[in-house]
Amino acid sequence: MSQPNNKFKNTFSRRHFLQLLAATPLMSVGQMSWASSKEQKQNIQSAKQLDTKPSDYKALVCLQLVGGNDSWNMIFPMGDDSTHGKGHGYQTYAARRGELAIAQEALQCPEVGRLHTANGQLPYAARSVGESYVKGGYPLNSQWALHGCMPELAWLQQAGQLDCVINTGVLAAPVTRDTLNTAELPLFLYAHDHQQRALALADATQVLRTGWGGRLADYWQSKGQYQITHPLGKNIAVGRSSATLVGETPSELVLPAGRPITLWGTKRGQMQQRLNTLNRPEAREGLSAIMANRQEEAINLAAMLSEQWSTTADYSKLTGPAGEALFSLPPEATLGLDTNMQGHCMKQLETVARMIEIGKRDGLQRQLFVVTMPGFDTHDDQAPRHATLLRELSLTLWHFQQAMAHLGLSDNVTLFTQSDFGRTLMPNNAGTDHGWGGNQLIIGSAATGSVLGQSLDLRQTSNAMAHDQRGRVIPTTASEQVTAHLLEWMGVPQQDLPIILPRLRAFPASLTDATFT
Q: How buried is 279 (Cβ within 10 angstroms: 0-12 exposed, 13-18 middle, 19+ buried)?
C-alpha cells in the first residue's frame, strides 16, 4: 500500500478540503462528467437539436411532506352521516377527533388573489391560532372539505387545478381489518424512515437498489427519451438527495434551493488553487482524485446554472395574496399567525420553476423533481403547529402555480404530495400519533378538480380501521396507484407501468380504476 505523500498533506489541510466543499453546495450524484463550461454548452446545443419522441414537454414534481402529515384535518368529512351513511360523515369524524376536530362550518373563501374576504377579514381568523385551526373549511363537494387555512388551494380546486386523493398510503397488497392477520403488510409500519423508503422505492416488502424515479429515468433512457447529455436532462432533487431518484444509470442531480453560488475574483482564485493542489500528480490517487473531479465539475456546473438562472423569468412584479413578491412569504402579522413559517419549500419550488423554464427552453421533454417540506410530525401542540404548516403549504403551492401560469406551462406541469403516513384519528396530548392511510394532493395539469378515492366508514369497528383503538385508517388506495396515474399522464403506456412500479400488479392498474366518491 502506498504511503500518504507528506508534502501534499502539509500543503492541503482538512480546512482547505472543507472550504472547497462549502464553496460548491451543488452536488452531482453518479458518474457524471461535465469537464468544462464549454462542453456543457455543447451538450445543451446537442440536446436542443436532438429529435426524440415525445415532442411535448412535461414535468412531474413530487413534494414530500416529511414527518407524517395529519391529512385527516387537511381534507376532512363535512357531510352529515345521515346523508352519506353511518360512519361516513362529519359526526363520526368529530367524535373521533375530539379537540382537534375541524368545525362543520363552511368558510367564506376570499376572491381569487385576495387575502381577505369582502368584510376585510381573514376567513380563518379567530382569537388564537389554535381556534383558527378548528374554525372550518372550504367544501370540495357534498362530503369533503379543505382546511380553512388553505384558501389558495380552494381557488385551485374551483379552477379544476387540484385533485384530493382520499386515503392513500403504503401497501404491500390490498388489505382490510378482516385480513390484517393474514395479508402481506408493509415492513415496519408506522416507522418514519421505513415508510419514507417504501414510498421512494415503490415497494413495501423489500429494500430495492433503485427508486421509482430512478427506474423512470432508466425507462425513458432506454426509449431514447431522456437527454442525459444535458446537465438538467436528469432527475433533480432540490435541497437534499432522494432515494426516489436513484437508478441503475446515473440519473440524479442534487441542487441547493435558490440561485447557485458562483465564485468570482479572489475567492474563485483561492478555490482554483485548492483544485490545482488536488490535481497535482502526488495527490491524484484514491479519494483525492475523485473529489478533484467532482468539485471541478460542480464548480463549472454551478457557474453554468447561475448564468442560465439570470435568463429566467423576472418574478418581482408578480405578487401573492398579501402583495408579497412571488416566492417570498408574506409578513407574519398579515396572516394572523403567531408562529414563523420557514419558507424552505417555497425556495425549493422557485428553483424547480427556473429549472423547468430552462429545461423546456433547451428542448428537454421530460423532467422529474423531488422537493421536501419538513415539520409534520405533530405529536404535541398540533393546532398552532399544523395551522402554520398548512398555511405555508397553501401559499407555497399557489406561488408555484402562478409561476407556471406566467411561463405558459400550466398544462405541462403536475405536482403531487406524499407523506410518511397519515396520523391517528384519536388525539393524544394535543397531538396525534403515527397512523397509516391519509389524504394527498395533485395539482396542475393532471388535476380536474375532483375528489378521488373510496368513501370511508371511520367507526372503530369498520373494515377500514386497524385493530388498535387509536383510529389508524387502513389505506384503500396504494401509493403506487397514485404514482401510476401520474406516470400515465407523463406518457408511460399502461402496459409498461410495472417496469417502474413492480408492486402495481397487486392493485388496479391506475388511480382511475379505483372507486371514487
A: middle
Each residue's pLDDT, cut to its tens digit, for the chain (517 residues) gives: 444 444 444 454 555 545 545 545 444 444 333 334 444 444 444 444 444 445 689 999 999 999 999 999 999 999 999 888 899 999 999 999 999 999 999 999 999 999 999 999 999 999 999 999 999 999 999 999 999 999 999 999 999 999 999 999 999 999 999 999 999 999 999 999 999 999 999 999 998 899 999 999 999 888 876 666 787 877 999 999 999 999 988 668 999 998 877 655 445 555 556 555 555 565 555 556 666 666 677 777 878 888 899 999 999 889 999 999 999 999 888 999 877 898 999 999 999 999 999 999 999 999 999 999 999 999 999 999 999 999 999 999 999 999 999 999 999 999 999 999 999 999 999 999 999 999 999 999 999 999 998 789 999 999 999 999 999 999 999 999 999 999 999 999 999 999 999 999 999 765 654 443 3
Query: Count of CB atoms within 10 A of residue 9's CB?
Result: 12
Residue 153 near residue 110 (C-beta atoms within 8 A): no
φ and ψ at 375, to 5 degrees? 105, 5
Is residue 192 a contact partner of residue 433, using CB atoms and an 8 Å limit?
Answer: no
Residues 335-369 as b/e (b if ≥16 CB within 10 A, e otherwise) read bbbeeebeebbbbbbbbbbbbbbbbbebbbbbbbb
Q: Is 170:186 a contact under the CB 8 Å cutoff?
A: yes
User: Does the domain formed by 58-259+326-513 have CATH 3.40.720?
Assistant: yes
Q: Domains of the chain: which residue ranges? A: 6-52+262-309, 58-259+326-513
Q: How far apart are CA 517 and CA 513, in angstroms?
A: 13
pTM of the predicted model as reported, rounded to 2 decimal places: 0.88
Alpha-carbon torsion, ordered 255, 259, 261, 265, to 10 deg: 150
